[in-house]
What we know:
α19 links the parallel β16 and β17. The chain is α/β, with parallel strands linked by helices. The chain has 22 helices and 27 strands. The two termini are 41 Å apart. Among the domains are: 138 residues, no CATH class; 214 residues, Rossmann fold (3-Layer(aba) Sandwich), CATH 3.40.50.1700; 111 residues, Sandwich (Immunoglobulin-like). It has a six-stranded mixed sheet. A five-stranded parallel sheet has the order 4-3-2-1-10. The protein binds 1-deoxynojirimycin (NOJ). The site of 1-deoxynojirimycin (NOJ) has 6 residues, from loops.
Amino acid sequence: MIRFYFTMVLVCISPLLICAQTTDMDAKIRELMSRMTLAEKVGQMNQYNGFYEATGPAPAAGDARLKYEHLTSGKVGSVLNVRGVDEVREMQKVVVENSRLGIPLIFASDVIHGYKTLAPIPLAEAASWDLEAIQQSARMAATEGAATGLNWTFAPMVDIYRDARWGRVMEGAGEDPFLGSKIAAARVRGFQGDDLSATNTLLACAKHFAGYGFAEAGRDYNTVDVGTYTLHNVILPPFKAAAEAGVGTFMNAFNILNGVPATADAFLQRDILKGDWNFDGFVVSDWGSIKEIAFHGAAGDLKEAARRAAIAGSDMDMESYAYVKHLEELVETGAVDEALIDDAVYRILKAKFELGLFDDPYAYCDNEREEELLYNEKHQEIALDMAKRSIVLLKNEDDLLPLAGNDQKVAVIGQLANDKTSPLGSWRIGSDDGTAVSVIEGLAAYEVNMSYAQGPALWRGNPSFVTEVEVNESDRSGMEEAVAAAKEAEVVLMVLGEHGFMSGEGRSRTDIGLPGLQQELLEAVHAVNPNIVLVLMNGRPLALPWAAENIPAIIEAWQLGSQSGNAIAQVLYGDYNPSGHLPMSFPRSVGQVPLYYNHFSTGRPTNQENNVFWTHYIDEKNTPLFPFGYGLSYTSFAYSALQIDDTDPNAVEVSVVVMNTGNRTGEEVVQLYIHDPAATYARPVRELKGFEKIELSAGEAQTVTFRLTPKELGYYQPDGTFVTEPGTFNVQVGPHALEGLQGSFEWE
Ligand code: NOJ
C-alpha cells in the first residue's frame, strides 16, 4: 500500500513548485511516521465525539477521564462536535502540549448548509439548479465553520435516492446522478476552495459511501440491495465527481450493500475509491458504523469488526472505540498488515498538513474573526439570495400570484407561518432555535394587511434533534378561528408542511401527505374561501393530490434557513420571480415510491390492447404529481427550433431557442435529456445530460447549445466498464423531464 505514495509523488510533474512542495510534505510525513509508535499511529485513526467542556476542568473520572488520557497520550486523531474558538483552542492545547509528538487534532462537525447563518436545506438549494449560488453558499458555511475553530465538515452528502419516505432526502441533491454530480463538485469547491489551509475553507467529506440512499422502504439505516448496474450508473457518479473535484475525505455508510456492511467493504473503499479513482484522501466511518458491523451480523465482536473495517479501507473510526481498543493487537498478531495502518495514517497526516495544522495548530482559533464572521450581514444576504433561488412555484392558476399589494386583505393560517425554528431544518448546528425569519415577519416587512390564525397545532411541545416529533392528530382547537379568518379575507395564505425535525436522520415516514390535521384544515378553509395560496414548508417531496387539484396557487418553500420568511414574502409579492425546479419527483401517492424520472421502459410500457396486462396500477396513474425538473415562473417560456449538429465525429451539438413570452424578466432552467433506445443493456427512458439556467427579459430569445460527448452518451456496464455504443439516440430539450422538443441522431 505504502508504495502507492511513492508513485504518486514521483509522477508529479508540473508545476515544478507544487511538485517540490508535495515532495517536501511527503518527506515530512514520512519523517514523522518514522518516529511514531504503533499505538500513536492507531491513535491518529481514532475519532471521539466531544466529551467534556474543554474550557473547564479536565474530567476526573469515568469514561471521560479515559478519553481525556487518550488525548494526552496521542491516542486521538480527531474530534467531532467540539466547536467555538475557546473550546477548540483549549482542546488543541491539551493534545499539542501533552502528547509525546504533539500532533494536532482535526476538528470536525456537520456544517451542512451553514453554521450560524443557515442557508436552505441542501435539497432546497438543489432546486435552484444554480451551481454558482450553491458553491457560494457552501463557502459561506465554510467561512463560518472555520471561524468557529473547525477544520472539517461532514458534507456534502452526495447520496442519490428515490424514496421520499426517507427523511434524509433533505440533505442531498435529489434523485438524479447528473445534477447530483454537478452539485457535489460545486459544494466541494465551495467548502474547500483551492487552499485548505485558508481560514475560510473546510476540508469536505463526500458521504455516505455507498448506497445509503437506497434503504429499503425508505426506512433509515435499512438494508440496501442493488445490483452493480445501478451502483455504477446511479449511486457512484456523484461520489466520483466529488473525488475529481478534490474532496479530501469520504465517509462510509451505515448500511449493508449486497450483504457487506459498507464500512467493511473493500470493493467500495479499496478497489473503487482508492484503486480505480486514485483517491488519496482518507475515509472516516460513520458514527459507530464499525461497531455496527457486528450488529449487522457480519462480525462476531468489536475486534473482528475492527479487523474487517481496517482491511476494507476505513481509515478513521468515528466513535466505535474499535480501533483504539483492538487495532494494535490485531497488527501485532498479524491479523492486520501494518502497511494498511501506515497507509491510513499517511492519509490522515497529509490532511493535517494540508490544513496547515502543523504550521499552526491554532490557525483557526481567532476570537475576533469568530465574532465578526458569525454575525455577519453579508452572510445573511447570501442566505437570502440562496433561499429565493430555491423556491419552486408549483401552481399558479389565473395568475393569483404575485399578490396584489398591501391593500389586499390576507389571512395567514398555519403553525408553521409563525415558526422561527422549523425553517432551520434538522441540521441547525451553530445556529440558535428561533432565529429564522418567520413568514409572518417576512410579510410584516411588506406591511401586509393581514390577520393570523394558527389553526389546530401541527406539533406538541418542543421537538429536539434526538426526539420524535409529537404530531397533533386529535386536538381541533383553532380550526373554527382559522375558518372564520379565511372567510373575512380576500386571499388565504396557508403555510403547511412538516416540522423541521420531521425530516433528517432517523426521520422516515410512511405517510407523506400533510401530517396531523393540516389536510382537514386545508379542506375546511377551502370550503369557505378557495382563494388560497399554499406555501409548503417541508424537507421532502409530499404527496398532495387534493391540493394540486383544488388549490389555485402552490409554492414549494422547503426549509429555507435563516432568511426563510423574507424570501417567501419577496416571491409572494413579486420582488423575486421564482426560478427553482424540482430536483426530485413529487408522487401522487406514497404507493408509487420509489418514483423517479429516469426509470426503465419495462417490456410493457403502454396499454396496447386495452387490457390490464401492462405496467400500471389499477388505482393510480404512473406519472408523478410534479415531475423532476418542474417549476413555474411568473413569466412564460416557449421552446422552438431544436437543431442537432452531428458533423463532428467526437461530439453532437444540440441547440434550441428559448423565448420569454410573458411580460416580466424571468429565469428558466433549460434541460436536455437523452435516451438510447437500443443498447446492450436497457437504458433509462430519459436521462438528464445537460442543463443551463438563463435569464431572459420580456420578449427576449436566446439560443442554448449543449454538447454531447462520449462521456454523456456512454454508461457503465454491470462490471463497471464504461462504454459508448453506436446507434440512435433520442434527445429532448425542455422545461422538465416530461416535456420538451424531441429529436434524434446517429452516433457512430
Ligand atoms: C451520522 C450521520 O449519518 C452522518 O452523516 C454524520 O456526519 C455523523 N452522524 C456525524 O454527526
